[in-house]
Amino acid sequence: MNQDIKAINEKVKQESEFIERITSQINRIIVGQKYMIERLLIGLLCNGHILLEGVPGLAKTLSVKSLSDTIQTKFQRLQFTPDLLPADLIGTMIYHGKTGEFSVKKGPIFANLILADEINRAPAKVQSALLEAMQEHQVTIGDNTFKLEEPFLVLATQNPIEQEGTYPLPEAQVDRFMLKIIIDYPNKTEEKEIINRMTSGDEIKLDKIITPQDIVNARNVVNQVYIDEKIKDYIIDIVFATRKPAEYNLNEIKPLIEYGASPRASIYLTLAAKAHAFIRRRGHVTPDDIKSICPDVLRHRVILTYEAEAEEKTSDQVIKQILDNIEVP
Amino acid sequence: MTCYFIYGCKIKRHLRNITVLFGIIFALSSNALTQLEDSVVLNAKVNKTRLPLDEELKFNATLTWNKDIFDLSFDMIEPPNCENLYITGNFFASDSKSTPNGQVVSNHYGFLIKPVNVGSATIGPVSLTYTDNISGEEKTLTTSPITITVTKPLSDRLYPFKIAAKYLVMSIVIFIIFWTIIHIIRKKRENKKALMELKSRPTLETIYTDELKSIYLIRQTIGNKEFSSKISLTLKKYLEEKFELKLLGATTDRIITTLSTIDLLNQEIVDLLMSIFDFCDKVKFAGKELNQDNVDNLQFKAETFISNMKNIVNSDDRGVKDEPGYKSNKRKS
After folding, report:
1. Are the beta carbons of A327 and B286 separated by less than 8 Å?
2. Does A237 touch chain B (CB under 8 A)?
3. N or C: which end of chain B has fewer CB within 10 A?
């Protein structure tokens, strides 16, 4: 094996050791939801924000809270409401009558892990303030610009069933999220375990496993994970298939796609695949990593046509069809 | 209305004509009956004058008289003399009916007669002598002879048709047998030809082993990475064709999972394939470097895998369980 890749493999094995410890800590509170926890870690490792979608009561908030408990970071939960203002989020200038000066009062966004609960309940100006902070990793209050402390990760949730009185995120803003995760119900065994665990009355306290510096170090290693040219070509083929399905013998999905995925999808797909390989304690990316992470990266980036909606086709179905038909290297 | 009136007149005219016609018929018949009632009459008749040799006819002699006028005594009637005919049985019946002139009695003397030979036959005259007890008068009544034509028996007449039908049936049977034999021979010949073609055609295993060998020959030109890539792609194509699976978009894990569901494949074969694919993946995606021994070993393993698959039946009996996302890629043949 190439010496560099061998070294990366060794490094990955060494640095990814904390993943299992974090997972086992979170599993002390969360039953099942392995997929969601893994995606949260991918977001953490790639510095990519995550949009969680699922009906209420699926432990979305609890999972994020548990993840933050295992890291020595500042965690903030923001409940988005229709009357929320941007200043409530990022902070404001406060006038002191005694001194006759203004001072900065930083908002709750100055934290490492932000849980934006029900993001679609806040008006567009609040959403855009948050999304700007997400993109720039900095906030401007008055004349002062403040850098947000790393790691800075926004985990937003939205409820797919209550659409009344909500402000759905525009496509351009949804695109800022690296992953969109659909949370599903637990199975019977998991549900039983949830009952046992949540009705025992015991308060579980999680150990702090890693520091923000560990996350920054891990991110550096993730960036070094080897990705072969063949895999890059595979990623490009997938993304291009969403834009020009006919070129990939996917004529049947051509009328279903209004807009294909952006280059940001290719970037995030590469990064997420690297993080996925890191979690699997591998120093190189395989097609399995791509296939595993692909729906979460593309789900909110493949915009379907009205015809597709009329046929009750989902972007997940379209992505699956693409993945089944693009030749794996 | 006019039309109805005209049609009404026409109908009335027809009815009048019909009434007149019936009147004439009635007058004539009553006259005949009156004549009959005044005398003693002996009539002879047959039910048919032309008959086949194997059938029989009825000869009937009827004596009719008015009982109120005549008081007759007579002997039994003698059977007629027949030429080329013979009597097989006889019967007697009597009936009477009341008329305005008195009671008319009829005695029927019947004979069943069969022909002897084909040709002409004659039923001789029948005579009957009676005595009128009132007048004491004795009279003999004689009927006329009746000529009969005897034809060939019906069975003889149908004979040519029967023969023709027999020959037709025989011909059809012979034709069917002949056609079946030809069909069987042709089918056997076709099967033999197909078998010969099949034998002469290279098997899937031969084709892909040759392909692996050709890849091995160009390994130095294409480089080790491309070599392993081509080896895994060839095996993937082979599996697609062998089991009619769609493996284009399948990763190594997916391929192994799918193959594990095929009943015909034992774990040893699946493990061998997994080791080949894993090795190829490491070369392709993890930058693993190959030396000559690795290349030879990979080539050997790939050829061994295909060779081991030889005895495993193709496609239809593959026993693949339903695998989500894996549609059959059955070729149209």
Report:
1. no
2. no
3. C
pLDDT at A242: 92
> Chain A within 8 Å of B289 (Cβ-Cβ)?
yes
If you average pLDDT over residues B222-233, what whole number do you get?
Answer: 86
Residues A64-89: tens digit of each pLDDT:
888 888 888 888 888 888 888 888 88
Question: Would you call B237 an interface residue with chain A, using a CB distance cutoff of 8 Å?
Answer: no
Beta carbons of A324 and B288 less than 8 Å apart: no
Contact B285 A286 (CB under 8 A): yes
Same fold, A20-198 and A225-325: no
Task: Classify A225-325 by CATH class.
Answer: mainly alpha
**Where are the alpha helices (H) located in chain B, listed in sequence order?**
2-37, 154-200, 204-217, 219-222, 224-243, 252-260, 267-285, 292-309
pLDDT attached to residue A60: 80
Domain covering B37-152 assigned CATH 2.60.40.740 in the classification: yes
Angstrom CA distances, A58 to A179, A205, B103, stand at 18, 20, 119
Q: Are A254 and A245 in contact (CB under 8 A)?
A: yes
Q: Where are the domains of chain A?
A: 20-198, 225-325
Both structure tokens of B309: 């698959």
Q: Which CATH class is domain A20-198?
A: alpha beta
Is the confidence at residue B265, as pLDDT, over 80? no
pLDDT digits (tens, 9 = 90+) for A10-59: 888 888 888 888 888 888 888 877 888 889 889 988 888 999 888 877 77
B285 vs A231, A320, A326: nearest CB:
A231
Mutate to test the interface with A, among B230, B251, B291 (most CBs of A within 10 A): B251
Q: How far is CA B180 from CA A165, B23, B167, B191, B193, in A?
A: 81, 75, 20, 16, 19
Show residues of chain B in contact with A288, CB under 8 Å: 251-253
Give which of A278, A280, A321, A324 to mutate to test B binding, by max B Cβ within 10 Å: A324
In tens, the pLDDT along A259-297 reads: 888 889 999 999 999 999 999 988 889 999 999 999 999
ipTM: 0.76
Is A4 at the interface with chain B, CB within 8 A?
Answer: yes
pTM, 2 dp: 0.65
Q: Which residues contact A70 (CB under 8 A, 6 or more apart)?
A: A22, A25, A26, A206, A207, A208, A209, A210
In chain B, where the domains are located: 37-152, 157-201, 204-317
